[in-house]
Design a protein that fits this description.
With 275 residues, the protein is an alpha/beta fold. The chain has two domains: 161 residues, NAD(P)-binding Rossmann-like Domain (Rossmann fold, 3-Layer(aba) Sandwich), CATH 3.40.50; 85 residues, ProC C-terminal domain-like (ProC C-terminal domain-like fold, Orthogonal Bundle). Helix content is 55%, strand content 11%. Strands 3-2-1-4-5-6-7-8 form an eight-stranded mixed sheet, with helices on both faces. Helix 4 links the parallel strand 4 and strand 5. Helix 7 crosses helix 12. The longest helix has 25 residues. The chain is elongated and about 70 Å long. The protein starts with 5 loop residues before the first strand and ends with a helix.
Length: 275
């Protein structure tokens, strides 16, 4: 990303994580600008990372990539207040706001922008996230590569061809960490109930979750086969899994993901109806 100026409109947790990741990959601090309505928070970011602060308009005027990292509720106001130079090349717009479609952004910004929608997740805060990306028809292959390099600063990326698939990405990975947190919480509480100390329960459950995930990622075998290998006939694991199956865990998971996807669609429609 040599010679590319990156501007962040919004300096919240996700923007902070992206900036830290970019700096760690060798992007010079002098190439990064950030703005935020909370000037005190912005100053802390500038002091800690040595990037430059700017106004929204200054970022729109000078950045090659503008990352929209504000809350969805204020996105229309932010976009509508920015005036892009009619005689200059338009920047690549990368939005990490949930529920805001590329069509919404196009309407609010005016003109035909190259827009990439991104759905990261909270493990991005420690560089362990994954992001789903969608590019509208105005995004060039070079700009797609640039967007991917940006988001790779906080974890791997996957592209979807249909923007509606971002709603499914939201349901699977965007909201997904909370599902695992809930399961971890339930296992921890059960371990405590059965007599283990808080410290022991936490250590066992957290490391089991990390180890299982890393094994699934590194193994060439499907997770179903990994599950079968640890499930001895008549053993303890089989007994526990039978309880899950009898409780229709798979159906519960499917219903939960569909509920999240449907809510993502509803939110997009709600933001659109406010135009």
């Amino acid at each position: 990303m040599k010679g590319v100026t990156i501007g962040f409109i919004g300096a919240g947790n996700m923007a902070n994580s992206l900036i830290r990741g970019l700096l760690a990959t060798g992007v010079p601090a002098s190439s990064i600008l950030a703005s935020d309505i909370d000037l005190e928070k912005l100053q802390v970011l500038v002091t800690n990372s040595r990037i430059s602060s700017a106004t929204n308009q200054q970022i729109a005027n000078s950045a090659d990539v503008v990352i929209l990292a504000v809350k969805p509720q204020v996105m229309e106001k932010v976009c509508s207040e920015v005036e892009l130079d009619q005689n200059s090349a338009l920047p690549l717009i990368v939005s990490i706001a949930a529920g805001i479609t590329s069509g919404h952004l196009q309407d609010w910004l005016g003109r035909q922008h190259a827009i990439v929608r991104c759905m990261p997740n909270t493990p991005a805060l420690i560089g362990k996230g994954i992001s789903g990306l969608f590019a509208n028809v105005n995004v060039s292959s070079k700009q797609k590569q640039l967007a991917e390099k940006l988001m790779n600063a906080v974890g791997p990326c996957v592209w979807v061809d249909d923007e509606s698939d971002i709603d499914t990405v939201t349901a699977v990975s965007g909201s997904g960490p909370a599902y695992f947190f809930l399961f971890i919480e339930a296992m921890r509480d059960a371990a405590r109930e059965m007599g283990l100390s808080d410290e022991t329960a936490n250590a066992l459950v957290y490391q089991t979750a990390v180890g299982a995930a890393e094994l699934a990622i590194s193994s060439e075998e499907d997770v179903a086969e990994l599950r079968r290998k640890v499930t001895s006939p008549g053993g303890t694991t089989e007994k526990a899994l039978r309880v899950f199956e009898e409780g229709r865990l798979r159906e519960i998971v499917e219903r939960a993901l569909k509920a999240a996807r449907n809510r993502s669609i509803e939110l997009a429609n709600e933001f659109g109806s406010n135009e």
